[in-house]
UniProtKB/TrEMBL annotation, chain A:
One of its GO terms (biological process) is chromatin remodeling. It comes from Carassius auratus. The keyword Glycoprotein does not apply. Residues 72-81 have a biased composition (Basic residues). This is Zinc finger HIT domain-containing protein 1-like isoform X2. Residues 16-25, 35-47 have a biased composition (Basic and acidic residues). Residues 1-81 are annotated as: Disordered. The keyword rRNA processing does not apply. Residues 123-155 form the HIT-type domain. GO terms for molecular function: zinc ion binding.
From TrEMBL, chain B:
Its main location: cytoplasm. One of its GO terms (cellular component) is nucleus. It comes from Carassius auratus (Goldfish). Gene3D superfamilies: 3.30.420.40, Actin, Chain A, domain 2, Actin, Chain A, domain 4. It is found in: Cytoplasm, Cytoskeleton; Nucleus. This is Actin-related protein 6.
């Protein structure tokens, strides 16, 4: 048992058997991380597993005083119409806009350009400025202790 | 004939009649693990006893209104009898939109305002335009200003000249409050305690404890010291919703620098996260987003403007939006812009008293403006001419 543990530890640092990710994979990993930062919630909807509730009865005390019958009916049909038409997500709406044909400033052109200043690097484990890079996956680290933590926890886990 | 001003933001909706005060209300729905049947809308958040693991349903995606179901539910609640009791036939509405809003979203907004809610008249405008209006109202002699709107989804830098926005100069940085909170969640979850589900709590941590450092590398060195010398380190007590309702930062006198705390509270020890997280607004490349930070984008945007106007823009930089509330934000922006701007120009950065409600106050002034009647589109106008009249009149 003890032998297995030590060989396991050594294997990750043995230059012949260490797996190295190429730049494409590293880039994909980075994109994945950035997309994860855009999420609203990391947990699932707590109501997702519940059975569908019975449709609520219309509330008669709603402020429909302005309503003549036609506007009330129009409201109801409009509601369903919206539900079907407007379930698009952001990406679909952006493609629909078809901005390549329009001229002048638009959503895509307004995006900021890459910075002229060089990128600063921080240790993936402790957050302080880093000087060194992990050979396998390209993550930054500042000291050998952080490298150890990195190898034990994150290195090459969840590779694309 | 009253006017309702609604600054429809991705995180908070700032809403109020133009003759009353503004209310800042979350613009989303919440679901909780504990109360299984109910979905809470907007300010019903106060009714939730246990905001741990709170699930957010936001109508906005990347800053644009995508989910109309949720938005309509929130608006129904706000316009209904519990909140503002809006009498639609007798009310004008001033509502804000993001820059370069998609035409399909604009059309849907027209339909909803005029056909579903049936407002008497409506004005759709960018939030920054309202801020610029407010700024020019106070500083009558200035011709140009540049508005930095750093909100939940992104940050926009928009130059205004004589009340009109200059589209060529608009710059968008895809870093906003949501990104900062999510990043903070990730690093805390990796280094200390798993908090990935606790958006609401960590948002509170970010607002209480984070600040913008004036000298980044020096603060980094101080944060690495041990014990009492580390003036950057703070301990944050997490809420457990039974005895501690709201998290708070422990004052320095009570902190225990060596060893553990005796009480049973959950503590987060924050050192470099305090200033490294807001640093992303100034250097998005720190986490790999290849975009300019706020000071660089400001200078870049001004450089795209005609030369005669540039000194006027440098003299009138206005900061709005929730992210500007970090302590030290204004001074840092001034320092960096001063370093990048040409020597002969005067640089002045203004942070209003209440940056979150600044556009709302601009909307209030606009509603009282004598020209207001010409700027809006009435319902009769819309029913005759359709979307075309809105496209013409509103400059989004």
């Amino acid at each position: 048992m003890a032998e297995k543990k030590t060989t396991g530890n050594l294997r990750s640092q043995d230059p012949n058997q260490r797996r190295v990710l190429d730049s494409m994979t590293r880039h994909r990993r980075l994109t994945r991380q950035l997309e994860a930062l855009e999420k609203d919630n990391f947990q699932d909807d707590p109501h997702a597993s519940l059975p569908q509730l019975v449709k609520r009865l219309p509330q008669f005390d709603e402020s429909n005083e302005s309503g003549n019958e036609s506007s009330k009916r129009r409201k109801k049909t409009r509601g369903d119409h919206f539900k079907q038409r407007f379930r698009k997500n952001f990406q679909a709406l952006l493609e629909e806009e078809d901005l390549s044909v329009s001229e002048g400033p638009n959503y895509l052109i307004a995006c900021a350009e890459p910075s002229k200043f060089p990128q600063r690097h921080f240790c993936a484990v402790c957050g302080f400025p880093s000087n060194y890079t992990c050979v396998s996956c390209g993550a930054r680290y500042c000291c050998v202790r952080c490298l150890g933590t990195h190898h034990e926890t994150r290195c090459l886990k969840w590779t694309v | 004939m009253s006017t309702l001003v609604l600054d429809n933001g991705a995180c908070f909706a700032k809403i109020g009649y133009s003759h009353e005060k503004v209310s800042v209300i979350p613009n989303c729905q919440f679901r909780s693990k504990t109360s299984r049947l109910k979905t809470f809308t907007a300010n019903q958040l106060d009714e939730i006893k246990d905001p741990s693991g709170l699930f957010f349903i936001l109508p906005f995606q990347k800053g644009y209104l995508v989910n109309w179901d949720v938005q309509r539910k929130v608006w129904d609640h706000l316009f209904g009898k519990d909140m503002f009791k809006v009498d639609f036939a007798d009310t004008n509405i001033v509502i804000t939109e993001p820059y370069f809003n998609f035409s399909s979203i604009q059309d849907t907004m027209n339909e909803i305002l005029f056909e579903e809610y049936q407002f008497q008249s409506a004005l759709r405008i960018n939030a920054g335009s309202l801020s610029a209006h407010r700024y020019f109202h106070e500083n009558n002699s200035e011709l140009c200003c540049i508005v930095v709107d750093s909100g939940f989804s992104f940050t926009h830098i928009v130059p205004y000249c004589r009340g009109r926005k200059m589209k060529e100069g608009i710059c968008r940085i895809n870093v906003g409050g949501k990104l900062l909170s999510n990043h903070l969640k990730e690093i805390i979850s990796y280094r200390q305690l798993h908090v990935m589900d606790e958006t609401y709590v960590i948002n509170q941590v970010k607002e209480d404890v984070c600040y913008v450092s004036q000298n980044f590398y020096k603060d980094m060195e101080i944060a690495q010291l041990k014990g009492e010398d580390n003036t950057v380190m703070r301990d944050y007590v997490l809420p457990d919703f039974s005895s501690i309702k709201k998290g708070f930062c422990k004052p320095r006198e009570e902190m225990n620098f060596t060893g553990k705390y005796k009480t049973g509270e959950q503590i987060l020890r924050l050192t470099n996260e305090r200033f490294a997280v807001p640093e992303m607004l100034f250097h998005p490349s720190d986490i790999g987003i290849q975009e300019m930070g706020i000071p660089e984008a400001l200078v870049n945007s001004i450089n795209n403007m005609p030369e005669e106007m540039q000194p006027h823009f440098y003299k009138n930089i206005v900061l709005t939006g929730g992210n500007t509330l970090f302590p030290g934000f204004r001074d840092r922006v001034y320092k960096e812009v001063r370093a990048l701007a040409p020597v002969e120009y005067q640089v002045s950065v203004v942070l209003p008293q209440n940056p979150i409600c600044y556009p709302w106050e601009g909307g209030k002034l606009l509603a009282e403006n004598p020209d207001f009647e010409e700027m809006v589109v009435t319902r009769e106008d819309y029913e005759e001419n359709g979307h075309y009249v809105c496209e013409e009149k509103f400059d989004i």
